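Quick start: what a row looks like.
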Amino acid sequence: MQSEPKASDLLHKFTRKSSPITSLVSLFCSTISSTVMPNVTISIKVLSFCADLKGVVNGQQIQSLICKHGFESFVYVGTALLDMYAKCCEMGLAEKVFVAMSERSPASWNAMIVGFLQSKLYDRAIGVFKKVLGGAGTGADSVCPDEVSFSIILSASADISCVEVGKQVHALAVKMKQFSSVYVSNSLLDMYFKCGCFEDVAKLFNGIGCRHAVVWNVMITGWLQNDNFEQAVIIFG
């Protein structure tokens, strides 16, 4: 059995090859199963490969190795695993991993939120988000929501043009006093622009008291992306 640094060398060698990524992950799985002891860092890296190529089967192989070596108790590994399943639109498998986690970080919750949104399960996404905002329970459910959580779900809502979820998050941001965050206000503006809700953009922009340079940039970019050059020039001027 080789040492952990050797496993890292193996992964590095595989990723430098010109073979398709699917072949590299399959080769890594078969090799590491028999000859090399994996570690947490390597497990997370290979899971990210599986997520990028939507390789559920390879991801399940990695999950077996993770359980075999007892890595499933690490919150970062569990989060990477559920994120992989979520990106593969396997929310049933992602949820099983999520429920089984003994500890969940804000990143774990965010991965579930984005996964549900990408799978068009909007009610489930907003339900998870509300649990995050509520800091539900203790132990595995003890989370500390912050501006990152708001920005992530707003960005995901913008990417899939889901203004319904975006408006619910907007209302929650005001209620939870997160609206003053530059990240949140910028994410809201971006979401409304991408959803074509220009009246909401104007109302939001007019309600921002302290407008940082980034806010102006978001406004200019938003109008340009919507082919409204006149408004972009007005903002720029």
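That is the whole record. The two ends are 66 Å apart (CA to CA). Residues 193 and 222 are 6 Å apart (CA to CA).
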